[in-house]
Queue: 2 jobs
Job 1
Amino acid sequence: MAKSNKPVVWFPFAAGGTVIAFFIPVIVVLTFMAALGHTPPGLSYDRMHAFAGSGLGKLIIFGVVALSLWSSAHRLRCTCFDFGIRADTLVAAVLYTMAIIGSLLSAVYLLQI
Amino acid sequence: MTQMKERLVQLEVLRYNPDTDTEAHFQRYEVTCYEEWVVLDALNKVKAEIDPTLNFRWSCHMAVCGSCGMMINGEPKLSCHTFLRDYEGIIRVEPLAHFPIERDLVTAPDDFMEKLKRVKPYLIPKEKKPISEGEYKQTPAQLMKFRQYSMCINCMLCYAACPEYGLTPSFIGPAALTMAHRYNQDSRDGGRMERQEIVATHEGVWECTFVGACSEACPAHVDPASALQQMKITSSIDWIVEHLIPGGKK
Amino acid sequence: MSRRPLVREVPPTTWYFRHPLYLRYMSREITCIFVGAYCVLLVVGLQRLAAGQAAYEAFLLGLRSADSIVFHLLALAASAYHAATWFGATHKAMPIQIGEGFVQPNVISGAHYVVWAVLSFVILYLAGVF
């Protein structure tokens, strides 16, 4: 029984879980307001473009999205096992790949702004 | 002296005789108990007056020895610490979950015993001192760092509660891993990296998904879940030091 | 007398129905499905933002559907439940010892809620909600 490399996936999961807890609820509220037809001024194209245009803005947005995607992917991997899906290696490969692709795409889009 | 109130208790007990049975089956017992009694008292009265073939482990009758763990209405409990007054109707009594049944309510604790040994649950002193040099000294604050985790009575209720142990029997489990943490946190100890060879494996802390059922079930307030999460963090830091920091590997 | 121990199988797909604590655990875990899906929505939003004003404003308009409102409510409930369980568990993973005592769990989770409230307020303010 060699020492596991689980920390590779667990550390970002823990960081992502913290990010989700602190940031996602309020972000959901913002887009929820847009869904209700009361888009907050900060979500307008000009404001969002300016925010995502800044170096700090890119970092913050990427950090939140990438870590949240990873944390959700890892948790879903464990949950699949709890639901009785025993093909853990396959599930892990699929979910982590999806998280990585989502994060890469975010980076690409952010760099275009 | 006030007369203790009596109550008719119905127990539905899982029976298994390895000499004659291929499966377990429930048997109903009806026994008059005192209101203040615990389930263990009811079982003892059944054994004394109704069915002497009923098997179960017990010893101290005061929740310190850890012998009498069983499933009572689907929850892992010490039968000496489970009061009849908290239950209505038929009380279902089964052997501790996730362990093979030897006979009736007696389970085979072999797996736990083996895992407990594997984590090296003893002091591996930082500096070995001969007795002539005196005692290892420890402040009250240093004691408090591990004291909670030293309260384990090895009752295995946490193993019965842990769904991951039920699904993956190779998991080393809450109590054994908490024992490793207890020694890791002890200022006299220097064996943490030795124990990491067991703790930081897939079957160690990484099988845990922080369900928290173990800490809910623990009658000694050890909080094994907290020990495991703390070891996940230290194991992750170890991994970073070992793999990402040049010269970090010993 | 020989030993013939009987092994009881754990049902791999329905074990969590055996106790309310397990059901609460599974509810906590499946919040990740809604949070993850919401993050995918954010990635789509980023793409629209990069594609220009027309695309981005169409995206915001596209959010105004009944399905979207239901999804947002689910995502809000899921992320809030995630936050509550996360804040409640942090004291176990990182106990703070001061002298011979430990900082009370309520204080640690309480501090998390305070930070969360302040952070949320600041973000809402910066977004011009009030």
Job 2
Amino acid sequence: MDGLIKHSKTINKLLSRYGVKFGIYKNGEFKEQLFPFDPIPRIIDYNEFSNLEKGLIQRVQVLNCFLADVYGKKQIIKDGVIPEEFIYSAKGFLPPCDGVFPQKGIYSHISGIDLVQAKDNNWYVLEDNLRVPSGASYPMIARELQRRSAPETFMEHRIIDNRNYADLLKEVMDYVNTGGINVILSPGRYNAAFFEHSYLAEKTGAVLTTGNDIVCENDKVFYIDYDGNKQRIGAVYRRISDEFLDPMTFNEESLIGIPHLFEAYKKGNVALLNAPGNGVADDKGIYYFVPKMIRYYLGEDSILQNAPTYLPYYKKDMKYVLDNFDNLVIKDVAEAGGYGVIFGSSLSKDKKADFIDLLKNEPRRFIAQEVIDFYDLDILDEKGERVPRKADLRAFVLTDGKTKVWPSGLTRFSRNPDSFIVNSSQGGGFKDTWVLSR
Amino acid sequence: MGIITLEKSNNLFWLGRYTERVHTTLKFYLKGTDKMIDSDPGYYAVYCQKVGITNIYGSRENFVRTYPYDETDPNSIISNLNRAYDNAIVMRDYIGTETMAYIQLAIDDIKHAEKSGSPLADLMLVIDHLLAFWGCVNDIIDDEQIRNIIKLGKGIERLDLYLSLDKSEFEIKKEFRRMKQFLSKSHMHYDSDTLFTIEKMLNEEGFNYLNVRSLVRGLIQQ
């Protein structure tokens, strides 16, 4: 560990050399900046990871069951486990996906589950990301560079190698591939996560594309080369949002989508990773119901806990939220990236009154959660001294024939001592996540 | 990799062109600044005319201080390097992270040189890293067509610049021969009549540089 701290500057220099950056728009202008890396890793021991792994597998399996059900028979609604208005009012529920079944029945191939560890040692799930979760490439390349900068650290500790993420991802793409090449579809150079798109393309051997070179003909998808020859595409790991995926089916103003892609997908001629429509399952309102889903589909108790959550939609919960407003964190279900998060205690009297009016008018739009007193992790500050900061963990779960948890993850931390928000777009940094092999 | 689309071939071609543009103009700038030290302080105006950029600098000092580093000037060396980076970053899956890193290092060098006490000496590192980039193109990129498109871009740019900079006929002919070998290997579309005419002109003694340059600029069909 001391070796990593000693070589912190070298590691950050190497990350810069290899272009480990993320894009951000400030005042309408695109800027690329380095994703600040902290050399003190999060360490998860073998037994703890085994439990976490079981919980994550259980959760992702059940979320896949839920998606198959909600776009299929809708039994969970018929049985009254989830009120139907929660499904149909979810922004991520896409009517065109109703009755459409993805290749091999997998909806969420790559799932990013955000967790925090509380001071009682329990892990709590903060949110599920089943659409286009990003971030795995950062610890993957950071590990490579750390091993080069401080090899002795990795000789002294038994750390599971996390550099196989691209292999796992390729296995998933190959598993659902309908015959043809794998491509990674990116919105382009000015997307916040473009580094990741290009790096994963390089490491998986998939072709990186912005869609300009792709056409759909006779419900099949082709990649067009310089001479106009067509090569069939079997799997698209798309890193663009559902609404922009295909202007013929979703947002007709989308310039980055591929016309008729959804038709080819519907006919089973191309696999889309992740499946369109997954947003209904990672909706912050649906999150509340995940433990109930686990009981409903698997007949089991949830291994991983949700953060205690209240739905103002229910009268009883609304009362609790209003009575305990200052102790809760309120989240707008339509927002992501750390936006739309309000700590009740942070509002002035007037703003609080305005917000409560909004909450009463649009109860389905918000959830409220207890503020979890989670572990701080040490980071090195600018002077090189250890200081505690809030941090979460994004665990990556990959699903092909089996559901597998990548033995690492993206640990994000807040650089601001007073903030719980760890997102890179709001100034957060990242750490490597070590899983010990024994 | 095996599949090169029109857009990707364009990126590779311009990656070659911009890296070469930085390489040759930087070498010319270093020679020019030497002239401006004592023998010809106003040489920067000649430099601008030869390279084909507008002389917005007003003084030797301003030219030396801003031309390599000013990101708001589209003709500056760093602007051309940024364009090389823009073409490289979208081709990471084809050229590799290791190869791309040398463009990033060249950008870091030029930014460092701007603040350095000995900027001219430090700018030489940019040339070192560009040479390392081309070394990687040869050594790391497995796909022959990808290598040849980058080299074709580099060859076209060098020929264009050498014709502008009045290099010797011997140098021009040498660079033409080098560029020509990548034309067919790159599989890029080019005008064979134009190629024939350029070859014919180069075989004449005292050929007109401007005419050859115009033809070189229209050789590749994009």
